[in-house]
Amino acid sequence: MSQRVTLTEVSDMSAEELNVYEKFQSNLTRALLLTKGSAAPHLALGASFTVGLLSDLDREVIVMRVAKLRESAFERQIHYPLALKAGLDELEIEAIEEGDFARMDDKRAALVRYVDECMLRHRASEAAFRALNEHYSQNEIAEVTHLAGHCAMTAMYLDSLAIPLDEENASWGRLTEIQN
Questions:
Q1: In angstroms, what CA-CA distances link 155 with 8, 127, 138?
Q2: 96: closest CA among 68, 76, 75?
Q3: CA distance 44 to 24
Q4: How far apart are CA 167 and CA 165, in angstroms?
Q5: What are the φ/ψ torsions at residue 95 (nearest 5 degrees)?
Q6: Domains of the chain from N-terminus onward
Q7: Over the stretch 52-92, which tens digit does the pLDDT of each residue have?
Q8: Fewest CB within 10 angstroms: 36, 104, 109, 172, which?
Q9: Which of 100, 81, 91 is nearest to 170 (CA)?
Q10: Half-sphere exposure of 18 (CA within 13 A, CB side)
């Protein structure tokens, strides 16, 4: 698919836009800057999950599953190395992406099933919620749900506007500095 929109060029950014872009130098940020006021809040929300209730490993399980279900090359490109860093190996990532529950422990299977229902049915069933609640608190489940939705929204935004992948992964080092 050809690119549908023209991304904001760094040289054309206002001081406020440049302040946001410098914290996460990515085509995602350049695309979000096409909106009037969504770039910083969207990125700040994403950054909030890095200091949230979920472990890095659980967070990356969720993102890798959403990336697969939404066919998001961007989410996979950005999060694959983070998934490895969080402790997942290539076979575990493959099982998550394939939804191969037989290759997962009960906790991970419950997490992936819950995410599947959120993504495919747009809400989790009572059974999926209860199974997840055996391993996670209600607050953690709220964060699972919110993270899955955020990833899906990001994937839909990028894919609908045909935003090209970055040639190199952007650094996450300053992302948590963004305030909305």
A1: 19, 27, 26
A2: 68
A3: 10
A4: 6
A5: -65, -40
A6: 50-160 (1.20.1290.10)
A7: 999 999 999 999 999 999 999 999 999 999 999 999 999 99
A8: 36
A9: 81
A10: 7
In this structure, what token pair is assigned to residue 97?
A: 């992406």
DSSP annotation string for 22-49: TTS-SHHHHHHTTSSS-HHHHHHHHHHG
Q: Which residue has the tokens 């929109």?
A: 5
Q: Dump pLDDT digits (tens) for 5-57.
A: 999 899 999 999 999 999 999 999 999 999 999 999 999 999 999 999 999 99
27: Cα separation from own chain's centroid: 15
User: Based on the number of CB atoms within 10 Å of its own CB, is 103 exposed (0-12), middle (13-18) or buried (19 or more)?
Assistant: middle
Handedness of CA 45, 137, 89, 105 (dihedral sign): negative
Angle (CA) 55 173 165, round 5°: 90
What letter represents residue 13's amino acid? M
Half-sphere exposure of 60 (CA within 13 A, CB side): 21
Q: pTM surpassing 0.90? A: yes
